[in-house]
Amino acid sequence: MELTSTRIKELAASVGIDRIGIVGAENLPVDESRFREWLANGYQASMAWIEREPEKRADPRILFPGCRSVIVAALNYYTPHEHEPDAAKGKISRYAWGDDYHDVFREKLNALVEKMREIGPEIQSKICVDTAPFMDKAWAVRAGIGWLGKSSNVITTGLGSWIFLGAVLVDVELDYDNDVVADHCGSCTACIDTCPTGAIVEPYVVDAAKCISYATIELRDEEMPQEIAVNLEGWIYGCDICQDVCPWNRFEKPTAESRFEPRELETSVSLDRIEHLEHEDYVVRFRKSAIKRAKLSGLKRNARALSANTPRQ
Ligand code: B12
Ligand code: SF4
Question: Which ligand is the nearest neighbour of the Cα of 39?
């Protein structure tokens, strides 16, 4: 049997990947200059790691010498649960309710590569799930997975924006998807208007320094900047506001991946519990969870900021 793009798409579906688009590695995302502009504006805030190796980020053929094709994958993480309206709790963003997507997605992409190797044992590949300097969103747009929404998340017509993105770089030539999905945002500005911190500084562009997601996950400072702390709107880890208000997220569908179901059925965590959490209990509660990215000290800081700025009933 020959390894064709059609076969790869069938294999991807068989390992539980929801969307696949395949493009030639030389089809570089057109907006690489925008990435440099984003850095020049300082919108990366303290995420110095994103400034490293810009040439690799811009060109997968440098990241993975021999790369001929880019297989972009999307994994639906929507589960039909909501946050509880409880000021004594901090809301966890939807993407972090279940098991860490890096592990779940990598496992699926590994399974895909193994199945591809059964057909073409000589194939060389590199998997990217946030571990490599690779521009997931730009490639997802190029591969026809969806369009870059004004919130700067990739949105699809069938699954909304509740998708993770990943990729497999391979050293073989394949048939490519040429149909790019048109920008369906139209005149809607719901994400920009609703963002409580004004982080979407212009359509498609997020200033991380103003974003609640950045402040609650990536920021390592001991204290939360006051202008964000007073606008947290109950979020202790990440923020989904710009996606919750997106009209395209009315078309979400529950994921078939049970590991994305909320752990301990929790979509929010008690602020008191976090403020008094011991390290051993933190390790158990957040084992295999993306939330570990914030570290216990970051979660406690977030809980303190919420407690100090949210009136309790
Ligand atoms: C750094 C990062 C962040 C930063 C910066 C966010 C950002 N918007 O870039 C912070 C910490 C804030 C963040 C937050 C979130 N993130 Co994040 N993040 C990343 C990461 C690691 C790199 C993204 C990056 O390169 N940013 C740099 C900027 C320059 O890239 P960009 O947005 O693609 O920039 C383009 C546009 O600005 C565009 N552009 C600029 N001007 C214009 C004008 C026009 C007209 C057009 C058309 C385009 C355009 O050109 C730029 C270059 O391509 C990716 C994973 C990866 N490896 O790609 C995940 C990723 C983007 N994040 C993801 C998620 C889920 C989130 C959150 C939803 C998590 C949460 N619930 O809290 C939030 C969403 C916040 C938001 N509104 O963006 C997913 C997004 C999935 C999707 N559907 O798109 C990714 C892809 C992770 C993954 N593997 O699935 N994230
Ligand atoms: S994640 Fe929250 S703070 Fe960041 S851009 Fe979206 S709405 Fe604004």
Answer: 1
The CATH code belonging to domain 5-81+97-170 is 3.40.109
Residues with a known catalytic role: 130
CB 38 near ligand 1, within 6 Å: yes
313 pLDDT more than 60: no
H helix intervals, 15-160: 32-40, 54-58, 60-63, 101-119, 136-142
All structural domains of the chain with their residue ranges: 5-81+97-170, 190-309
Compute the average pLDDT of residues 43-58. 92
Q: How far is the CA of 5 from the centre of ligand 2 (A)?
A: 36
Q: Strand, helix or coil at 138?
A: helix
Tell whether the model's pLDDT for residue 41 goes beyond 70.
yes
Q: How many helices (H) and strands (E) does the chain have?
A: 13, 11
The model carries a pTM of 0.97
- CA-nearest residue for atom 30, ligand 1, is 35
What is the Cα–Cα distance from 234 to 196, expressed in whole angstroms?
11
